[in-house]
Predict the 3D structure of the following.
Amino acid sequence: MNNKRRWTPYILLLPATIYLIIFFAWPMFQALRLAVYDNDGVLALQESAETGSAVTGTLPQGAGISILDRQGNLVPPEELDATNSLTEIWFQVDGEGAEGGLDAGKPHSRPGGG
């Protein structure tokens, strides 16, 4: 009888624990994983600080880089609206590419430097 009473609180908490794991912990883990996971895992380096410029190389995810320069491109007044009022930020970087050689170029960053 004493052994059965010892397990009673754990058995009563088990459904709530399973519910929390399924509907809170697992989706939270998946969201955090998705936030930092990239299928390609490469950063494309472009020749110049323009959206349509040619790709000169790639850097693998987690590669060490050196920032050589930072450039902000102003958005033309005719393209400004309430959702697009930030400056484009480009960084000129230098790092070791996937093949082992040094790659230099300008990866595109989100508006506002993010």
About this structure: Strands lie at 42-46, 55-60, 65-73, 88-96, 102-105. The radius of gyration is 25 Å. Helices lie at 2-36. Residues 110-114 have pLDDT under 50 and may be disordered.
